[in-house]
Amino acid sequence: MSTPPHPGGNSGYPGMPWSPDPSRPLPSPGGAHDPLDLPPAPALPGEPVPPPESYERSTRQRVLYLPVMAGGDLLGYVWAAESNTKACGFIRNLAFFERSLDASSLWNRRLDQSYGEGLPAQDAVRRWRGAPEDPEGGAIPADAQEQWAQSLSELGASLNPDAPRSPGPLVQDGLYPDGTPADRSKGWGPLVSAPMPAYPEETAGPVVHLPVVLGGNLVGYVWAAVSGDAAGYLRRVPAGRAGEIATGLWKARLSDAYEAGVNAVQAIRAFRGLPEDHLSGTVPADAAEQQAPGLADLRRLAEQ
After folding, report:
1. Per-residue pLDDT for 283 more than 90?
2. CA angle at residue 278 from 152 to 189, to 5 degrees?
3. 5, part of any domain
4. pLDDT band at 121 (very low <50, low <70, confident <90, very high)
5. Which of 39, 82, 86, 119 has the fewest CB atoms within 10 Å, i.e. the most exposed one?
C-alpha cells in the first residue's frame, strides 16, 4: 500500500508518528506473529458488562505530574489534567520496562480507589506524596515538587523520547479534537460530515482477526486481509448495542493507521494490550490471532 499524502501523520495530528500505544512499538513485518491456522476462538458467554468507572487515562489539557521513584530510579510519573477533574493516570519509564509495568498496575489500582472515593484527579495524585515506598510500585518522594507539562504527549516525549507517540482516544476531556463537545447539549460543531480515510472493507481472500473485549465480554473483532490492504471492525451481533457503540473508536484507530501508511495486518496486531476504553473495550494483550478462510466466515462467526 502506498503511503497517503500525510507522511507520518494521524488525523488532526500532523507530523506525529503513528502508534496506538507509546509503550508498544509496531511489530516488524515478517516477525514472530505470522497468522496461525487455528480454529476461531469461541464467543465469550453472557451479556456485555461495562468495566467499573474510573478516571479518564488521556487528556489534551496541560498536566500536573509527580515522579514515582524506586531505589533512586524513576519508574514513571503520575499525572492529572489541569481542569478536567476526572482525568489522571500513570505514565511508564520504558527504560525500566518490567519494573515500570508492575508499578503501572499498582498506581492504576490506587487511582481506581481514589475515583471510587470521589476525589478530583489532582487530589488523587497528590494524596500519595510521601507514602511509604511499595516494593514493586515505588513511591512519590515527600519532597517531590509538582511540575507541569503542556500536554500528556510532551510529558511522554520527555520520559521516553524514542517511543512512538499516540493521539489517544478521539474524545478527550469531553471534546472532539476540533473542540466540539461530545455531549451535544453543551454545543455543536460544524455540521459537516466527511468520511475518514480508511482501508478497503471488503476482501475476497482469507483474513486474520483479533477479539475486542469489553468488561470481559466479546463485543466484536478487528480484522485484516492476509494479503492486500483491507481491514475493519466487525461487531458481534449478540453483543447488541455495546458492539455497535464500540465501532467508532476502532474505525478511528484504523483510519489513523491507514493515514500513516501502516500495513493492515501490522495495524491490528499493534492494537493488542491498549488500555480498555469504557465504551469500546480492548484487544487483550494475550489475544490469540485467528484466521478465517474469508470475510463471510468471520461474519458468520460474529452472528453467533
Report:
1. yes
2. 70
3. no
4. very high
5. 39
Domain membership of residue 147 (yes or no) is yes
What residue has cell string 462467526?
Answer: 301
Per-residue pLDDT tens digits for 57-74: 999 899 999 999 999 999
Report whether 248 contacts 225 (CB < 8 A).
no
Number of domains into which the chain is organized: 2
